[in-house]
Amino acid sequence: MSIRKRMGLAAGALTIAVAAALTGCAASTPSNASSTVTVMWASNEFTPAYIKDFEQKNPKIKIKFIEYDENRLNAMETAGNPPDLVRGSPSANLFARGLAAPLDGYLAKSKVLKTADLESVNNLWRWNGKTRGTGKIYGIIKDYSPDATIWQNTANFDKAGVAPLSTSTPASWDAVLDTAKQLKAKGIELPLGIEWQWGIGGEFQTMVEQQGGHIFNTALTKAQIDTPEGLRAIQWLIDYGKAGVGPTTLNPLADGQDAPSFMNGKMASTMDGFWFGGNLATADGATVAKTAQLVPAPTYGKRISPVLGGVGGWIPEASKNKDAAWKVMEYFMAGKPAVDRASSGWGLPALKSLWKLIPDKESYQKQAVELAKTEVKYVVPLQDSPYISFSQWNGLLDKELQNAIKGGETAKQVASSLQTQMNTLLVQGKDQLG
């Protein structure tokens, strides 16, 4: 499952009633008692085999598995009976509502998960009461990827007679688009995919912050999209859509993702991040793997390489079984599942001690790992308001961009309309939080 697509799995946590958080005073089940931990996760990640392995190693704890469903999560939280461990992405909205329990005390005592072993990307799960990135930690990332890094198939570039992007020096966003236009002119069917169908809010915000701007004011209560930085980012997305160099929600791929097109040679490059390299280790990706390279995230000035998901696990404050849930967390984040994830090449481990397991035998793997070592230095939390969810404003941005691509709206008009709609939602969100 993709880094960006999985972001949607956390959306339900962003709309849960505040009242649910007030049930968090319930005592946790003593660690020496027999107990059942309800885990809400994706079954392709938390497999029956892992459940069996955990229960064999922890005979006093049974796992009740529930496939992630945001509506069911909402209902369970509202009823004051949430799962004990939940899959999700970090968000200021989740933290501000007090729905997630802080894990600092558990980390301090754990012999399995250590704060010193956590990669800095885990700061995405930190919240100081006002902003994300510092303060107490409310979740642990399972794996991650600098999502704006680009995989390119040099065979397509050679065929078109166009120079590929540098594997060491970040290109500007404008240069990336110009290269895609050159490939298009030389007959390459799909020069550049940016997984638009999974949401382009992350790319938009990255472009703004690379220029030194922000999409929210300092208090995180108002949107500021109609700025030079915002207009430049919006114009890039409009130009991308009108150039027809890659899929958008107006011309989506039938598969709903870039992978099949990239692996069959039709797509020259895809902005999918390190995790995507796992596709190249499959039989379907064997051919393109021979000519594939990972290149740095584009920049508009300041070098920022965003992690747009940061998917991991969190323990609800209202859970009545936190101690046992933490045992499951330890197993999934540092035990056999974590070892298997790191060894697969599908993502970067969130634990420093597991980096040695990342596969690097093939040339494309070795090159990608070396780039990742540099790229992770530029991972920083993007601005995040507790009063509006990413899914809310990303959907608005996509709608406005569609109007501009197929109609005559300007970047200025898109920015103005988006800003007005976001501010309405921000007011509503602030009123709900009080």
For the structure shown, list the relevant keywords.
D-Maltodextrin-Binding Protein, domain 2; Bact_solute-bd_prot1; 434 residues; globular; 5-stranded mixed sheet; 10% strand; disordered N terminus; alpha+beta; signal; 3-stranded antiparallel sheet; SBP; 2 domains
How would the blueprint of this fold be written?
Layout: E1 35-41, H1 48-57, E2 61-67, H2 70-78, E3 85-88, H3 92-96, H4 104-109, E4 126-127, E5 136-137, E6 140-141, E7 143-144, E8 150-153, H5 154-160, H6 173-185, H7 201-210, H8 228-243, H9 259-263, E9 269-271, H10 277-280, H11 286-289, E10 292-295, E11 312-314, H12 322-334, H13 336-344, E12 348-349, H14 363-375, H15 390-406, H16 411-433
Parallel strand pairs: 1-2, 1-3
Antiparallel strand pairs: 3-11, 4-5, 6-11, 7-12, 8-9, 8-10
Description:
The protein is an alpha+beta fold and 434 residues long. It folds into two domains: 5-145 and 309-350, D-Maltodextrin-Binding Protein, domain 2 (3-Layer(aba) Sandwich), CATH 3.40.190; 146-306 and 384-434, D-Maltodextrin-Binding Protein, domain 2, CATH 3.40.190.10. It has 16 helices and twelve strands. The chain has a five-stranded mixed β-sheet. Strands 9-8-10 form a three-stranded antiparallel β-sheet. β1 (35-41), α1 (48-57) and β2 form a beta-alpha-beta unit. It is globular. The relative contact order is 0.19.
